[in-house]
Amino acid sequence: MSATLEPRQVKAISRNRRVAGADPDKRHQILEGAHAVFTARGFDAASMNDIAAAANVSKGTLYVYFEDKEHLFVALIEREREKQKQGMYEALAEEPDLDQALMNFGIGLVRLLTGPFAMSAHRIVLGVAERMPDLGREFYERGPMLGARNLAAFLDQRVAKGELAIQDTALAAAQFVDLSQSTLMRPRLFNAERMPPSEDEIAYVVGEAVATFMARYGVTAKGA
Amino acid sequence: MSATLEPRQVKAISRNRRVAGADPDKRHQILEGAHAVFTARGFDAASMNDIAAAANVSKGTLYVYFEDKEHLFVALIEREREKQKQGMYEALAEEPDLDQALMNFGIGLVRLLTGPFAMSAHRIVLGVAERMPDLGREFYERGPMLGARNLAAFLDQRVAKGELAIQDTALAAAQFVDLSQSTLMRPRLFNAERMPPSEDEIAYVVGEAVATFMARYGVTAKGA
Amino acid sequence: MSATLEPRQVKAISRNRRVAGADPDKRHQILEGAHAVFTARGFDAASMNDIAAAANVSKGTLYVYFEDKEHLFVALIEREREKQKQGMYEALAEEPDLDQALMNFGIGLVRLLTGPFAMSAHRIVLGVAERMPDLGREFYERGPMLGARNLAAFLDQRVAKGELAIQDTALAAAQFVDLSQSTLMRPRLFNAERMPPSEDEIAYVVGEAVATFMARYGVTAKGA
Amino acid sequence: MSATLEPRQVKAISRNRRVAGADPDKRHQILEGAHAVFTARGFDAASMNDIAAAANVSKGTLYVYFEDKEHLFVALIEREREKQKQGMYEALAEEPDLDQALMNFGIGLVRLLTGPFAMSAHRIVLGVAERMPDLGREFYERGPMLGARNLAAFLDQRVAKGELAIQDTALAAAQFVDLSQSTLMRPRLFNAERMPPSEDEIAYVVGEAVATFMARYGVTAKGA
DNA sequence: GATGAATGAGCCTTCATTCAT
DNA sequence: CATGAATGAAGGCTCATTCAT
What we know:
homotetramer, 224 residues, mainly alpha, Tetracycline Repressor, domain 2, disordered N terminus, DNA-binding
């Protein structure tokens, strides 16, 4: 006769067994649906029903692949982050000319940030940041903060080479990031501007960002 | 028709006369409750029940003063905006010294933006911006955009006076606004930083913003 | 400006406000419906949907009057207990003749226990006793245990009067209670017997219970 | 009827032919898992998922061996009954001394009934008795009723031998069974008493049961 | 025969909104 | 005007059962 199990043990067993979510195609399919619905509606207004329908999957299947709505959302955010951060920082490493390196980096950054997904992700994450602070923090740390940190490391190198005169490279990096987005990011975020900026607009704004940045931190500049 | 009115008509007339939500005290009371609850929970997670309770008002009364949840929220946002933009731009008009004027303006701006209400308002508005684009746009236009525009007007004056050399004052204004918030706003927004920055931090960052800005646009600067 | 509320505080407020469930008629109506459905199906298989339908009330209304399914069930159990324990023990106090007093008590007890409601209540409470031990214990303590305790007190009096010779009146009381139900309760409980026993059957079994009890504990008996 | 069979019948036959669940080891394995889960949770709260996990078997396999949840449960109950009634009544046949025979029987009975499995089985069967009356009746008839019947047969023998004076041996048997459980069974059933009674407690209560029983039915007793 | 991913009905509960008092 | 009980649609999630492999 088997031993009597405590409820907790029984649950543990069934939990361990739940390997599930094995089929990567279906997982992908679900994430596509989730992307569409979360993007269109935001976290709260997106219903698991809608997501199941959008993914062409039964509601139950959603829960085979993801523990609950929040986990599904987090998985989506993570997938998108992976998708998009590729090649972001190569520009910095490869380009020897300082101005051009900054220009390339800034353009890539702004292109990414003003794109439709980053837009949605920002809005959704910010929308739930009060209730899900960990999600907000993690998103920030693995996204914007990471970008600034990588740029700061690059600036450190150029300072070491004598090409730049910066005391607080962390702040300088953040300044450049913010300058690059000036007038472009905010109206997008608030949905005051429905379309991503054109390449020309981006080039202009980032160019001005580089100019301002170099005016302050370039070795021949007065502010050094 | 004769002068005799059916009871129902009398009632109908008095219904039409209902100036709905006439009592300003009660309206204020409701907005207070709404503020507390929206701030604590976000738009979707805030229930009309909670708001009624927080406002010490019956649920029905909510609907006398505001058409529905969304209108209540919009009214709240508008009220708060009025509340807080007062005196934001006086700094610019009053202070003759350019650096100091920018400093004062930047500090006031950052203090406001990193404060608890602006935080919530941003998060909530952004969270619903996809579903309620008008709200997002309006918030942007009457808030951040207005600030930048006022600053741009100020810059125009100083350019005219020969104190600054700026071609695109609209962009320059936006740059200054963004520089002032560097490293301060974003972590707050994502809830990665739970406390508003100290006055010292603000002063440091805004100081650096002024330095960078003036390096680019100051009349004696190389970038002019 | 109202102070920012922590989520917990907001919830507390709304909880406190929920006076609700004021209308006793509607409450009664709901309990009737709940009675019907719980009785017919048991706790788990009874759905709130069914209960709402049986009570002719909307699903939402259920939750105005009762916090959740479990609370509704507990309230039902309590109401029924009140309903039925009235006058159970008066028989003991009033009847001077010992045999007759026991007879009356036993008959009342068995009539109650084999009736349709006690039946359902037993089954349901026992069915969930593993998962809701508090409910089980409370039901036991306020029901069966209380009956035995009252009887034990009565026996103590009669022992003091010299009418009975009992060392362990608690056990003796329990014995009498169990003897009275012999062959009647168990088949009912298991649904092997669909109808309550007739008055004649009850009288017979309780009569035998009294005879057996008195053979053991009566003052003139051998077992004294 | 003619020799022609309707398709449906053919299917039925082939279904019957399916020796479904042929492997006795796997069947046993499943029942072990079912035992653990049903015991821990009750009928409704036990999920087939948990049972499959506890049995280390796939969910599909469950349905190869058992038609559905209910059939699995019934099979479990039946198996456990077989397991435990063995040797229950040997005490009666072997022991020549009447008091001792009753004592042994009563002790064995109570030990069994207050043990963990009988507890769960009772609770679960009672919990579903309304919805599954056949299960309840069968459980009763093959369990408690059978015990009482065996005891009654024994009493008949002793009455024939002149050792007891009983008119209604069926009732007397039931009385003894109930007396033996007094104060022990009920609190266990309601989960008011989490541990099975000690051997001493059992011996005491059964001893008192024998004493009361013999006071009534012993040949030298007044009640004869 | 065994598997376990997939299904979809159904469960409990919440909530914006209405309306009789 | 104010109230708050009542509504019922909708939400997130579970689970017995099926079926392609």
